[in-house]
Each structure stands twice: as structure tokens, then as C-alpha cells.
């Protein structure tokens, strides 16, 4: 059984073909980073237009690379939400039209469920149940995953998501969009030991019980530090790197403390890390170390499947075809900007 997956929720156009027997047969991706860079962030209307421009060519490229006959698709899965509504609509319209022409169903997939299950694209794949840490540009969530479609929210960010905190802090440091990878690269040359004692960046909400997060205070601490250090002068390169490193360590410490707490609370023996911030090397290393210490296995998707891609959407679509939990086969084009995973 074979599914074409289409992802267009934000600034990446991704298509992939996933086969339940043979695994991932191919995937193509176009990133709009260059398009949005001069604006310092994603411009929704430009994102939608670019998806419209890219989708047909990427689809043809995927067919040419894999030499697959589209009539062999059992279904087409597309990201129904959450995301930018215009961007979502381009993928939904493309998927529905293609499905209609091929005579197969089009299935709307939840973007975060895609991220959550992306580690199942890898070998060895984690088995259920597991603890999931979802860290993307829009979400920071801890979930107990007992089976496909059974996601219990244990905690989440009350304000900024982890990726958003990376992006906003990167902006404060004068780094371009997308901020997360740029900040992580800068942090490699930094030394956090300069910020000790009172100057240490906070590990928000780790001093009280619970599994929720809050990252906006950390961003403010960085802004205040920059103000204090600058005192009217320009910030030198080493200082910027030191701040980046101290910030990254604060986020990674906070996330791993909460993961540890969630492991103790649930007794789960596997951790799955997903979403764009899951590409962060320091986070991966620290969670791996935590896993070793606690005798818990840690699973990640490969770096390119941490951020948005079509493969995770094709994979989730294939699960729903297999378990016959499909959406009604009609020709309505559905997209939802907001869509809590719990109501999927
Ligand atoms: O999952 P994703 O591609 O899109 C959403 O669904 O939000 O995540 C994008 C987020 C951005 O905030 C980006 O800055 C962050 O992931 N990110 C990183 C890294 N790579 C991407 N943050 C920290 N370190 C990285 N290496
Ligand atoms: Zn995403």
C-alpha cells in the first residue's frame, strides 16, 4: 500500500512517497528560506504563491526520480493543519485535485502528528508506548503516546515555543531568518561560563512542579543582558557567541529537566524527539546522555526530517489508510489554521 504525502503548512514545499512494505521510496523538498530572508521572517502571501508555483514541478520531479506510476497510489495525504491558512490551502487543493483525477482518496493529516511520528521513518523505529518531546517553531509539548492516535498532553509552553524563542533571540543577536540554526552555529564558538551566578540565564519553571514550559522570560533575560553589556557600545563577536551559547544551554537544560521529570512521572522507557528544534545538536547530545543515565532509549528522525517535510505526512497517511481511519472521501478542500492535536 502506497501513499503520496504533501506538506505546505509554512515555508517548505515537501512531497514524498511512502510504501508500507518497502518504506520511503522518495522525497523532494523546496525550502523558501531565500524568498523570506530579506523580510526577516515568513511572509504568508509569498509562501502561498511559492507553493502554488513549486508543487507541480516538485511532483513531476518526484515521479521522475522514483519512476513510480501515480496510478499505484492508494491515497494522497496532505497537511490539513495547523499552519498558515493560505499555504495549507495550496497543498489541500493540489492533493484533492490530484486524488480526484487518480480516483483515490485524499486524507487530511495533522502537521504535529507528522512531526510526532517522523522518528518511525527510521530504523530501528520506536515502538509504542513512548514519551514524545515535540519542539517546533509553533509548539513545545510533552506527550505520552500509547498508540497511533492516542496522545495524552502532559505539558506545553504557556507562551513562546522553543523554536520561537530561538528565532526571537537570534533576532536580538542580529542574526537573520531562520534564527534557530544560525544561533546554534554561533553558540559553537561561545562560552557560557561568563554568565554565572546572578547573570546566569534562567531555566524557566524548573523550580516548581509540573511539566509546562515558559520561554518568554528567557528571551527577556537575553534582551536585558544585551542592554547591560552594550551600554551604548557595539557588541563584539565573542560576546554574541557567548550569549548564544548561554541561551542554548538554558533552553536545552530546561527541556531535558522536564523530559526527565516526565519519565519519572509516567514510567515510560522510550523518548521520541521531534520538530525543528530536534535538529539541535546540543539538545540531541544532552537527551542521549539523559537516556543513558536513566536506561531509556532515545529516538530522533534524521536531521532533514526534524523540520517540515512530505515524508512524515505520507507516513501518517499510510497509517490511516492501513487502519481504515480515513476522512470521508468527498471533494471538499479542508484546511485549518488552528487545530489542537487532541481534537484530531
Ligand atoms: O518543525 P519546524 O520546521 O516548523 C514548525 O512546524 O514550526 O520547526 C522550525 C523551528 C524554527 O523555530 C527553527 O528556528 C527551529 O525549528 N530550528 C532550530 C534548529 N533547526 C531548526 N532550533 C535550534 N537549533 C537548530 N539546529
Ligand atoms: Zn513543522
Strand-residue fraction? Answer: 15-25%
Radius of gyration: 21 Å
What letter string, H or E per element, gives the SSE order?
EEEHHEHEHEEEHHHHEHEH
Structural class: alpha/beta
Overall mean confidence score, pLDDT: 94
Main sheet makeup: 5 strands, mixed
- Please work out how many helical segments DSSP would assign: 10
Provide a quick synopsis of the model.
The chain is 42% helix and 19% strand. The chain is globular. The protein binds 5'-O-[(R)-(carboxyoxy)(hydroxy)phosphoryl]adenosine (KG4) and zinc ion.
Description:
The protein is of the alpha/beta class. The chain is built from ten helices and ten strands. Strands 3-2-1-4-5 form a five-stranded mixed sheet, with helices on both faces. A hairpin with a 4-residue loop joins strand 6 (130-135) and strand 7 (140-147). The protein is globular and about 65 Å long. Bound molecules: 5'-O-[(R)-(carboxyoxy)(hydroxy)phosphoryl]adenosine (KG4) and zinc ion (ZN).
